[in-house]
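Hi P.,

Sorry for the delay on this. The queue was packed all week, but I finally got your sequence through. Input first:
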Amino acid sequence: MDTIEFRIARAAVFFGVKRAGIALLLALCCTGCKSTPTNPFLADHRGEKASPDDTAAGADADESKSAAPSTVDLTVLEKGGWFEKVSPPFEKRDPDERRWRHQEIDRLLAHPAQGHPDLSSALAGTDAVAAVNAAIVMVHWGIGEPIQQLVAAVREKSLPMNARCAAAEALGAVHPSSPAPQLRELLQEFAGPVDKNGTPATAEGQNPELTAVLIRALARHAQPGDEKWFTAALRSPAWYVRIEGLAAWAAIPDQELPLAAVDLRSDQDARVRAAAVRAIAAHHDPHAIEYLQQALNDQVLDVRSVAVEALGDLGSEEAHAILSKLKKSRSELTRAASVTALAAAGMRDEVEAAAKDTSQHVRLAVAQTLGQAAQEGRQVAAQSVATAHDLTRDASAEVQRQAVASLAAWPIEQAGPVLLLAMAEGGYTARKESARQLAERWPAAAGFPVDAVAERRGAALAELKKSWSQQYGEINDAVAAAKIETQSLITLSEERIREVQNLVAALKQANLPEAVRRAALTTLAAAGPQLVPVLEQRLDLCDPLPRELYEDVLPGVSPVFAVLERLSSQDMLQRRAAATELVTQAAETALSPLALARLAELVEAEKDPVVWRGALMAVADDSHETAVRMAYIAVGHASVEVRRRACDYLAAHGDPRHAQVLVPVLDDPDATVVAAAVRALGYVGTLEDPQPLVRLLNAPDKQLRLEAAASLARLRAVQGVTALERLALDVDITVRVQAAQTMGAIADPAFLPTLMAMLGDRANVQRVAMLSLAQIAGVDVAVQEDGAVLTNDEKVHRWQLWYRDRQDQAPAIR
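Then the structure:
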């Protein structure tokens, strides 16, 4: 007779419960970050600022590039206007970079090589400004070596200091002849004589502005004996001269770093301390590890970040060990800096592991390094492909955007599958950016309906995947091979799986004898980690498992279920701690369907907002139906924070079904929750009745009106476009700026006329309007190819030309 007791006994034999010391065999399958705003240097700490007349726009750069020699306007050589390019103070700088710039001279430098005009008359003329400008242009064109003219310009006191500094910089760029003798003479004159140890004879008559440029120029042509000038610079009272001295020493790592350079790691100026850290690392000083660890405790965050970066440059095993430890720091920014340093050191495995960090800053740093995965050859490692796939589905839109941008450095054969999957599975930002990049690199993707409803997008993707497979091969093979999840499972026979099902069914019987119940639980526990996937594959997860499985069996075979069991505690503090731990575990490995089902069951009756917040954070990246149901429940929670986070979740996982849940939230008593619900409605794809949002266009709160207008515009409702155009005329400049930003984020060509009109607004509005125009156009026409800085008026003029030339193409753009 096949009784329950008999089946339990037979299952116990299958799972080895009665065979002491015999464990189930487990098979383990594994698979083996702009511009960042920083505090800039004071732009004109040496020399005069260029006047508006000096930096006024000249002929359009594109026109100057295509002009014939006879049409080049050489009167620009007679104009002043040199200025120093603002550089981030704590970032590495290219020693060959041109720091001294001139708006109109830069246009002349961009002239095609085959059309270079003859500058000899200007060089030999009586106009000192034209002569020095001609000499600078000739050096950068590589058509002469006017060394004596540049030396004379550096000495010419009647010239503006900015022009003299530009001449000194150009002197350092002379090639192939070496200007080192002349540079030493000039340093003797403007820095003062120094002895062989680099000790200045006197501080009188020194010119720190010129000294700094001359030190940088000499470093490019340094010969034995020149170290004394670099050491003397370390003792300068001017911080920027000390930095140039350190940079010069960093460029000659074969020489022993002087004590004066090492001592600057405790300089009063943070910028100098950071430069000293870099020099110490470049020289692999015997005490480098000790000094860098001291710098990790600097009071200025930027210095600490440079110290982390320097550890990556150091390249030793000890440095790598410190970086690995820093990757676990409590400081998000320190962890992010360690990721960047590990990437520079080639420690890709360490970098990829940080992609699961709970901090957006760290994941963003990982995303910024993805491009490096393709630098050592065309084949990108499978783990990097998997990381890219994960980051394009990140909870942070900024991380999604950066991950997609980094894929531009990958071969299309490997970037394409990830981009296509991002268009299918990623958030709105990843979907939009992936479609744009893929269309640029693979014309077949042009016209993908980014903002269409899910059904239409799915149909379009199916066609794209078919075309991709025909041209490049199966997409699933390309990415899925890199997404093999770590498993500790063995394939159970059908008979054993049936035994699990029978045991679970038996446990659901209310009158089951206690001894039989305990035997069944013991037998199920013996299945080990493989029990979870078996339960998921063969049982209806909508039907909760017997309570004893959650309490007595699953916590012993799965760490996640051990945490979930603590969520059922009566102790609120223990539940809160468990929720926090669950967030960490979910960041490392997504919750399984069974774990999700259990979490939803536990939090449904949860009152504590902290526990609910943790639960929503744990499922933030999960689009499974169970996680969606959790968010639906959360929008009705008593806590404002929980309701708001639920709306944020629904915004990240847009679906037309969300509308029926979100529309009632528009009547929430808390304004932040209403705003979150309005934003989420903008991502549902389609809204049958937009009137609830339309009514909010007249709300007293301008921010709420802006959110409503943005959501309506995303839903392609004409009321939203019209409302944003009205807000672009608001008397409050903050509202106008936000309206311009929103238009760029939506990237609808319908906003082009409004954004063009905003170019006549104040500077802050102009700047944001131009950024938004670039987002819609897909190109920033106000960026000079050679990196030259344009004035605001020049940028506006370029956009006006672009718009005028493309008005006839507007229907095609749409």
